[in-house]
Amino acid sequence: MIRRWRKSLRLFIVKKMSSLATTNDSLGNVLAKKTGKYLAMAKVAAADRITYFLNIFARSATIIVRIWIFTQLYEVTYQAAGVEQVNGLAVPVIIWILMLTQSFGAASRPTAAFVISEEVKSGALTYQLGRPYSYLLFQYASHLGRYVPNTLSSIAIGIVATLLLVGTVSVSWQGLVLGLILLVFGITLDFLMNACMGLAALWVEDATPFQWIYQKAQMAFGGMVFPIALFPEKFRAVAELLPFSQCFYSAARIMVKFDAALFGRFILIQMVWVLVLGLMAVLIFKRGTRNVSINGG
Amino acid sequence: MSEPIITVKNLRKTFKLKQKQPGFWGGFKSLLKPEYKEVQAVDNISLQVNKGEVLAFIGPNGAGKSTTIKMLTGILFPSSGEVNVLGFDPATERQKLAYHIGSVFGQRSQLWYHLPPQDTFDLFSKIYELDEVAYRERLKFLVDKFEIGELLKTPVRKLSLGQRMRCEIVASLIHSPKVIFLDEPTIGLDVIAKQTIRDVIREINEKEKVTIFLTSHDAGDVEALADRTIVINHGSIVFDGATIELKQKYIKTKIVELITEDPIDKFYFEGGKVVEQEKHRVQVELDIARNSIDKLLTYATETFNIKDINIYDPPMEEIIAAIYREKNE
Description:
- The complex is a heterodimer.
- Chain A has 13 helices and two strands.
- By secondary structure, chain A is mostly helical.
- In chain A, strands 1-2 form a two-stranded antiparallel sheet.
- Chain B has helices spanning 23-32, 65-72, 94-98, 117-127, 132-146, 161-173, 191-208, 219-225, 243-250, 293-303, 316-328, and strands at 4-19, 35-50, 54-58, 80-85, 101-105, 179-183, 211-215, 228-233, 236-242, 253-260, 272-277, 281-287, 306-312.
- In chain B, the strands form three sheets. Chain B has a six-stranded mixed β-sheet with strand order 5-6-7-3-8-9, with helices on both faces. Chain B has a four-stranded antiparallel β-sheet with strand order 11-12-10-13, covered by helices on one side. In chain B, strands 2-1-4 form a three-stranded antiparallel β-sheet.
- The longest helix of chain B is centred in the middle third of the chain and has 18 residues, at 191-208.
- Chain B is globular, with a radius of gyration of 23 Å.
- The A-B interface holds A 19-22, 33-34, 36-37, 39-41, 44, 47-48, 51-52, 123-127, 129-134, 205, 289-290, 292-294, 296-297 and B 15, 18, 61-62, 66-67, 70, 73-77, 94-96, 98-101, 103, 105, 107-108, 110, 112-115, 119-120, 122-123, 126-129, 155.
C-alpha cells in the first residue's frame, strides 16, 4: 500500500516537474535539471554583476560615510541622554547592527522592482516570458546572483570601517548562523515585495512611486536609520510585525546580538510574510500576464 | 500528407490604449477621467502551417504581425479564437511549448549584454535542460554554420549588429526547436550578413525539417526563404498563397536608384518611370514585365559614370494596394 502510494506520488511529482521531454528521467535527475537552471541563472547574473567590479566597489564604499555619520549621531545622542545603553544596546552594537542592515539593504540594488518594471517598459519581457521556467523564480535567481557580489563587497568595506570607528563587539556563532537564515528569508521577503511592485507596471505606466513609498517605509520601519530595538516598546512590537524590518534588520540584529526568543519571533513573522507575499506575487503575475501588451510591437 | 504544426482559428486580439490629450491640462484631465481606445490588432485570422514549411507573414507596420507571433508563442493572450502550436495551447501551456519552439525578435536582444555569447548559450543549455554532450555537439554545429567561433568569448556589447544577430539566432536554435519564429531577423543588417543568415536558415529548414514562421519587411528574406506568404493588413489576412504567385501577380515593379559621377540631364528607358530625379541621382520604377533590370543597368552604365546602384522592391503598402485593387475589380 505504502509502496504503491509512494510510486504514484513519485509519478505525480515527475509528471509535474518534468515538462514533456524528460518524462523518462528519474526524479533526482528531474529535480537536478529544474534547480540547475535557476542556479545557472544566478551564476550568470553574478558574473554579469562582477563585470564592473569597480562600480560595485565604489558604490559599496559609500557605506563608510554612512557609518561615520551614524557613529557621530548615536555617540552624541547617548552622551546627551547620559546613558551607556538603550534597551540593552550600547553604541558599538547599534553601529554594527546599522552597518549590517545598511549593507544588506544596499546590496539589493538594482531592486527586483526596478529590473521587472524596466523589462515590462522596454518589452524585454518578450523573451523572458517565452522560456521554459517560472518567471518569478527566474527573477529570484537573478536577484540572488546579483545580491551575492554586492553584499560581499558592502560587508567587507563595512566591517573595516566599523572596526576602525567603534571597534569590535562580541558575537556568537549561533547568532551568525541563525542570522544568516534570517537573511535568506529577508532577501526573499524584500524580493517578493519588489516583485509585486515591479509587476504593477503591467497595469500602471510607471511603478516608480510604489518603489519610493517602499524605500521610505524601509527607512522608517526597516531599521535602516533607527534600529527598531531603540523604539518605544509598543511601537517596536508593531514595527517588528511589519515586513520592512524583517527584510534586513532582523538578520543584522540577531547576528550582532543573539537572542534565541527574538530569533524565534523573527523567523515566524518572516515565514508568514513570505507565504502571504509569495501568494500575492504569484496571483499578480498570473493576472498580469493576461494584461501584457508589449511596448513597441 | 503534410502534418499541420500550427493551427489558428478566428484569432482576435484587442488592446485597450489609454488616450491622452496634449498639454498639461490634457494630462490632468486624462488623470481624472481616463479615456481608452480599443485597437483591433488582430482581427479574425485563421491559418494553418505544416511541418517543415517556411511561411512568410508580412505586412506594413502595425498590421498585427508581431502580435500574432506573440500569441503563437504564448506571450500574449488572445482576446478570442483558438491557437494550437505543436499540440499545445500557447496561452495555457506556455512553458511546455517553450521547450519546442525558438524565437528571434530582431529589435530585442536575449543575449547578456556584458557577457560573451558563450555564457548565454551555456545558460540556455541549462534552461532547456539539454544533455551536456548533445549541447556541445549542437553548439559546435551552429558555431560552424554561423561562423561565430571567434565571437564566443567577446562581450556582446562589443559585437557589431550583424555579429550579434548571428549569435541571437544561434541562441534560439540551441535547443533544436521544431518551430522557429523569426520576427524581423535581418533588420538593419548589411547584404552579406543577411545572405549568411538566410543561407543557414534555409539549410536548417531543409535538413532538420524545422518549420519557420518569418516576418520581415525585407522582400529579399521572403523571396529567399519562404515558399508561402501570408500578407496581413489592419489585423486581417489579405493574401495567403505561394510566394511566387505573390511575386508574379503583385510585385510588378522594381525601384532602381542610380547615383552618378556626371550630372543627369535626361533619363529615358523603355518601361522605366522616373520617380525622383536630382543632379546626380535618379530613382526609376521599372515595370519588370516590359523590360529587365539587366537591360536597365546596361543602359545606365553605357550612358553614365555610375557611382552606386541600389535596387529595391516596391514598398509593402503598394503590394497591399495592388491586392485590394484586384479584389475590388
